[in-house]
Structure formats: structure tokens, C-alpha cells
Amino acid sequence: MSMERFLSIVEKQRHLMYEEMKEAAELMFNEATDEDLIAQFLIALSKKGETSHEVAALAAVMKSYANDLTPTEARYLDNCGTGGDGVNTFNISTTAAFVLAGAGVRVAKHGNRKISSASGSQDVLDALGIHSDFQISDMQNLLEQQGIAFLFAPAVHPKMKRIGTIRNKIGKTTIFNLVGPLTNPVSLETQFTGINRPDFIMEYASVLRMLGRERAIVVSGAGGMDEASLAGQNEFVFLDHGDLIPFSLTADDVGLEYAPLSAIKGGDAVENAATTRSILGGERGPKFDTVVLNAGIGLFANGHVSTIQEGVKVATESILSGKALAKLDAVVAFSEKIRQKAVIQ
User: Fold this and answer.
1) 113 is known to lie in a ligand binding site
2) Where, in this chain's numbering, is Mg(2+) 1 bound (predicted)?
């Protein structure tokens, strides 16, 4: 079928079957397909409302085009959210990734520059001294040496360059926001991800099941966040070896205090990098608590702890022991070494 035909189907509010969406996705990644048609298709999908089959099919095709990254250690976690929540917090999941790694979880975190926020994960990493121009082999070495690496989306998804231009022109969230966290080139057994659509968390968890995750948690946070929040009740679905289990949780349920969203506002990349360093340095407050809440959920999603409450305690210890900050410093040192080597060559 042609892109025009798929556009016509979606504009009539009909959902695409899994195989149809795979075909449409292949057309989107085909350089010969008109960019305006792709943009119209993405906008129409968004207006119709994406389904789990459409998201899973696009994720499968996008991952098939990713650069191969196969570290020797198997049980990795990604804690990247979909973004696009418009809340403009500091970089919670990036900070939590160091906490998870400090606690012994192996983290392969997918990320990108800002598209719909003041500071995307790669923007804050740059400000911390972790550059984005790693080769695939560098990422693999970092994963194996430190148990944590940040996989810069354009480096692992070369086919996404043209799509990125189209997304920037659209300027609004599309199905690619939903698909981003699902296309990690490392074969993940576990995952913790968030979306700012409480109506879609069950479908999103079913996508993770279709993609072969053993354990995963999807959150839609209080106040419209794509991460767990201290500001009220967070809605979750827990995927456990095929079972999809919904539950909800507040800060109080795991021994943390309520705080409004205004307490975790972020700034630009330099401000957010300073926030990450201060949290990992042990500075307590709502931002610290937000990070240990999310890292605690990540620890549970990974099977590293048996409850989220235990996860919060382990995450707190990862920071207060200095292990989380040591992981950040080790990744910065690795990045600097790669950069110096490139200068010499």
C-alpha cells in the first residue's frame, strides 16, 4: 500500500493492524517517501489516537534499523520516559540512572536532545561533561566497564535523522514520543518508563509485553508527569512475566513527603546539571526525594528489590554512600578519555 492510502485510512479514524503499521513504518523510513505525507500521517495518527499495535509495530521496525549494540551482560534496565509532558522539571530520569547504577543495576539509558523541553537528557549530559560523539564500540565498552551508558538516539538510530527534521517541523508530540523508549538497541529484559497519558498506561504496558520485556513498570505521574511525582497519586501498570497489574502509589506510601510540582521545576541544561550534582552530592529536599522515588521504582522493575519501599531505601543509600556520584564521575572520566583520544588522532 502507498503512504497516501495509509493516510486516508487513518484520517477516516480507522486503526491500523500490526502488519499494516509495519508497512507504513517501512515507508516512513524510506527516503523516497514525501516528507509532507509523513508529517500528515503522523498528525492524523495523533488526532485518531495511537493503539498498542501501531506503537509496537513502529517500535519493531525502528529497532530493526538501529545500530547493533550487544553487551555481554544480559539484564539491563532502561528508565527513559516518553517526554513531552510540558511540566519542565529538572532531568529526573538521567539523575536517577546514576542512582540505579550506584545501587548495582546495569543501566542502558536511551536519550536525546531537547525536542519538547528546556533540557533533554543529552543536553544535561553535555553540561555534566559527558559528550554525545561516542562510537557504538565506546558505548559498549562503557556499559561493560561501568554498568551504565547513555545511548544517544541519533548515534544508534541513523535512519531517524530525516524523521527528526519532520518532527521538529510538526513541533508537537507524535507517535515517535511513545516509541522512543521502546527502541533501545540493547535487548532489554526490564524497563521503567513513563507517559503523561493515564488513559494509555495499560496499552503501553501491553506493548512492552509484545516486545518481550519480562518485568517492566509504566507510570503516569500526578500532575501530568511522565515520571513518578510527589504531588499526588501516581498510576502504574506492572508487567510481570506476562501479567499486567495496575496499581497506584503516593509519596506517603513509601515514606516520602508530598511536594508540589513547582518544587521540582528545572531550568536550562547548565542549571539542571548543577541540580543533578547537588542531588548526587546528598542535598536533601523534594528534588532528592523525586529522584529516589523514581530510582526506587526502577530498582523494583529490575527485580533488584522486592518492594518499591525497599527500592527507595536502597536508592537513598546509593546517594548517601557516594556510589551514585562515583558513577557520574567515572562516566565523565571515560568521556574525557574518548575525547582526548579523538584529538590526538
Assistant:
1) yes
2) 93, 227
Whether 287 and 202 map to the same domain: the answer is yes
Q: Check the annotation: does 89 bind a ligand.
A: yes
Is the same domain home to 11 and 116? no
CA dihedral 322, 225, 195, 301 (to 10 degrees): 30
Enumerate residue ranges in the chain where pLDDT < 50: 116
SS3 237: strand
Starting at the earlier edge strand, list the strands of the sheet with 190-194: 148-152, 106-111, 76-78, 190-194, 215-220, 234-240, 243-249
Is pTM, for the whole model, over 0.85?
Answer: yes
| Residue 68 belongs to some domain of the structure | no
Report the distance separating Cα 251 and Cα 231, nearest Å.
8
Looking at residue 248, the DSSP 8-state letter turns out to be E
Residue 345: predicted pLDDT: 64
Q: Is 95 annotated as a binding residue?
A: no
* Three-class HEC string of 120-149: CHHHHHHHHCCCCCCCHHHHHHHHHHHCEE
Residue 93 annotated as binding site: yes
DSSP strands (E only) in the chain: 76-78, 106-111, 148-152, 190-194, 215-220, 234-240, 243-249
Residues 290 and 193 in one domain: yes
Are 154 and 105 part of one and the same domain? yes
Q: What is the extent of the structural domain holding 287?
A: 76-328
Asked if residue 91 belongs to a known ligand binding site, the reply is yes
Pair (42, 190) in one structural domain: no
**Residue with C-alpha cell 535523522?**
161
- Which residue in 262, 255, 287 sits closest to 272, CA to CA? 287
81 is annotated as contributing to ligand binding: yes
Please check if 114 is assigned to a binding site: yes
What was the pLDDT predicted at 116?
46
H or E stretch at 341: helix 323-344
Q: How far apart are CA 98 and CA 77, in angstroms?
A: 12
